[in-house]
Amino acid sequence: MINQSSPIAANWAQIQERIARAAERCGRRADEITVVAVSKTHPAEAIVAAYEAGLRHFGENRVQEWESKQPKVADLDATWHLIGHLQSNKARRAAHLFRRVDSLDDLALAKKLHAAADAEGKCLPVLIEGRLGDEETKSGVAEPDLFSLATSIAPFAHLELAGLMTIPPFFDEPERVRPYFRKLRELRDDLSRRLGRALPVLSMGMSHDFEVAIEEGATEIRVGTALFGPRGSAA
């Protein structure tokens, strides 16, 4: 039974209202948007509470952290996303533990993920992470290199390129991030045309700016703080 009085359930209700208003403003349906609950640094109990509130997609940043939590939530019928930067030496573990990798940013990593997925006997959906700002410390593929990486991995039978993801620079005013979201949508559309195939997923927008992302076409948003509260405070 869902505990509607839990803080996470209350937060989820508010997030759903925000999504509905944003979708209405741009003529979309709220059910077009997948919400990935960013559970990094939060305990397995918080994941269970979010699942009971209705969430079905969860995002973790680190393979090692997820390995410690996964046994406690193994019975949940959820989709587990890796959303953080993945080192190629952890590709095998990631392919085993996650149902999707949303942060692919390198051909060498793609090759290792493909081999690992092959060994697992599965096709692993992936998103290419685009780096659209000038922050060199951030991971992601620079805009000029997106098409090259996409064409290189397109033939991989055990990787399914589903779309693009980005983490833009942080601004206190969400409206300032709109050009980055718009750019990712334009890049996705151009890439789809050049590849001659659909790329349905646009993963962009987080707790403070996901309304703008939805208005610019996001199909997937990543929500952590708005759902779980500040890191370490989930209950």
**Proportion of beta-strand residues:** 15-25%
**What Rg is obtained from the alpha carbons, in whole angstroms?**
17 Å
The proportion of residues forming helix, as a percent range, comes to 25-40%
Q: Determine the number of helices (DSSP H or I, runs of at least 4 residues).
A: 9
Give the overall pLDDT as a whole number. 93
What does the main sheet amount to? 9 strands, parallel
Dominant shape: globular
Looking at CATH, the homologous superfamily is Alanine racemase
Total strands: the figure is: 9
Report low-confidence residues grouped into runs of 5 or more: none
How far apart are the first and last residues' alpha carbons, in Å? Answer: 17 Å
In short:
This protein has helices at 7-25, 44-53, 63-69, 91-97, 107-120, 146-153, 178-195, 210-215, 225-228, and strands at residues 34-38, 57-60, 79-82, 100-104, 124-131, 141-142, 159-166, 201-203, 220-223. It is of the alpha/beta class and 235 residues long.
